[in-house]
């Protein structure tokens, strides 16, 4: 029973949350940080309205030989119109400079508020050798001068010897093919 | 062909306390190995040296890495195109003093 109760509470909280986001979005006159930049672009597209009125298929009915081709073509046009967003045809709300700066200030203020509300996990310094048992033992290991000297000599000689590597071929490297 | 490289490897591997020596190219492929060292270590050695080189990107001197494990140690250095890996062993007398 407790389980069902908790599930119900959870659903109720989700609904509340959804409701509140809808409420903030439901005020078209007051633009806030949740306002859409493009307001329902599909309905503002003039091409879609035109294709909906079926004017295109009637205009060119006589010139199209087959009905199947015609419906396929009109479907193509309609699909293109649906996918098109005509930005120019929409009523542009150009922001004044003052309004623009006001919005910047408002949004950054809201961001700060949200940021302060978040419970930040405390920053814990993680050491590289934290999970190594008795790291003092490893840190106290000496660096032998003979090791570095040996490595230096090794690398120097290796550079010289690697540069001397060359292929001494015993047969002809280029083999002629019998091309007629 | 690579006789000079073989000679260098043999000379380095024959030094005191040295178990084996290996040389890797830019891709981490083994150019040559001498002594008790697995040639497939070349790739890992090259990768370790590349990571360590990122600690001091502006350093002109190539970094030398020393890894300790038990009484063995592994010395790695990458200079330009090539990477050298040397396995060394603690001498018996030194190992005894370290245990005390």
TrEMBL record, chain A:
Cellular localisation: Late endosome membrane; Lysosome membrane
Signal sequence, start to end: none
Claim: Heme is one of the keywords in the record: no
PANTHER family hit by this protein: RAGULATOR COMPLEX PROTEIN LAMTOR1
Source species, domain of life: Eukaryota
GO MF annotation terms: guanyl-nucleotide exchange factor activity; molecular adaptor activity
Similarity comment text for this entry: Belongs to the LAMTOR1 family.
Membrane topology, record value: Lipid-anchor
GO BP terms, alphabetized: cellular response to amino acid stimulus; cholesterol homeostasis; endosomal transport; lysosome organization; positive regulation of MAPK cascade; positive regulation of TOR signaling; regulation of receptor recycling
Keywords: Endosome, Lipoprotein, Lysosome, Membrane, Myristate, Palmitate
Presence of the UniProt keyword Transferase in the record: no
Protein name: Ragulator complex protein LAMTOR1
Entry-linked Pfam families: LAMTOR (PF15454)
SMART domains assigned: LAMTOR (SM01262)
Coiled coil: none
From TrEMBL, chain B:
Keyword field contains Coiled coil: no
Database matches in Pfam families: LAMTOR5 (PF16672)
Listed GO CC annotations: lysosome; Ragulator complex
Molecular functions per Gene Ontology: guanyl-nucleotide exchange factor activity
Keyword line: Cytoplasm, Lysosome
Record carries keyword Cytoplasm: yes
Ranges in coiled-coil conformation: none
Localization terms from the record: Cytoplasm; Lysosome
Signal peptide range in chain numbering: none
Record InterPro entries: LAMTOR5
Top-level taxon of origin: Eukaryota
Primary site of residence: cytoplasm
Any one biological process term the GO annotation gives: cellular response to amino acid stimulus
Similarity annotation: Belongs to the LAMTOR5 family.
PANTHER family membership: RAGULATOR COMPLEX PROTEIN LAMTOR5
Protein name from the UniProt record: Late endosomal/lysosomal adaptor and MAPK and MTOR activator 5
Source species: Drosophila ananassae
Gene that specifies this protein: Dana\GF21078
